[in-house]
Task: inverse folding
């Protein structure tokens, strides 16, 4: 199976759907955020706190390269598209699927989770990031809307995109 990369904003379901998709297909799954934490030996929250967002982005780009060379199903972090080279590499080496949802739906999903350093930003600032990233996510090969879907329905939509690809 071709390498599959899931992109989208925080709370879009990249990790959740990636895992379910892997269970269903038997394809190896890796989550980019979890891989970075394992490599760094600390949480993303602590990487942001100790070294700042720029250092996190550097680790993220290096980790993405590793995972693309291994293949399988890869769920990314919400900000991976902020680096143009990351986008180019994902599009070149994988079938990239954008998991979309409107901002309010995503905000409801993530607002109480303290593990995401950027989710604790002021709501307006977070919405600005969301709006700025939309055209970046829309560069994906395919897009599905997860807002009014159950997790299982989202997985089925991803599978049908893969069958149509
Ligand atoms: N249709 C759906 N598809 C995916 N997730 C959903 C759906 N409906 C509700 N959820 C919930 O939304 C949350 C999505 O969180 P998840 O950690 O998978 O997002 P993520 O895209 O990996 O975020 P991050 O960029 O921070 O890693 C989970 O709690 C999941 O149960
Ligand atoms: O949207 C983002 O910039 C982020 C999303 C998360 O997946 C993590 O990669 C980190 O918290 C940053
Ligand atoms: Mg995730």
Result:
């Amino acid at each position: 199976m071709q390498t599959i990369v899931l992109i989208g904003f925080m709370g879009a379901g990249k990790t959740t759907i990636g895992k379910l998709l892997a269970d269903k297909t038997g394809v190896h799954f890796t989550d980019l955020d979890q891989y970075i934490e394992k490599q760094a030996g600390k949480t993303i929250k602590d990487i942001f706190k100790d070294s700042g967002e720029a250092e996190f982005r550097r680790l993220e780009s290096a980790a993405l390269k590793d995972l693309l060379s291994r293949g399988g199903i890869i769920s990314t972090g919400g900000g991976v598209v902020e680096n143009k080279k990351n986008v180019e590499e994902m599009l070149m080496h994988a079938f990239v699927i954008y998991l979309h949802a409107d901002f309010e739906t995503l905000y409801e999903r993530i607002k109480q989770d303290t593990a995401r350093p950027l989710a604790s930003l002021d709501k307006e600032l977070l919405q600005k990031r969301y709006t700025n990233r939309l055209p970046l996510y829309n560069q994906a090969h395919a897009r599905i809307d997860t807002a009014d879907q159950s997790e299982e329905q989202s997985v089925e939509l991803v599978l049908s995109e893969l069958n149509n690809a």
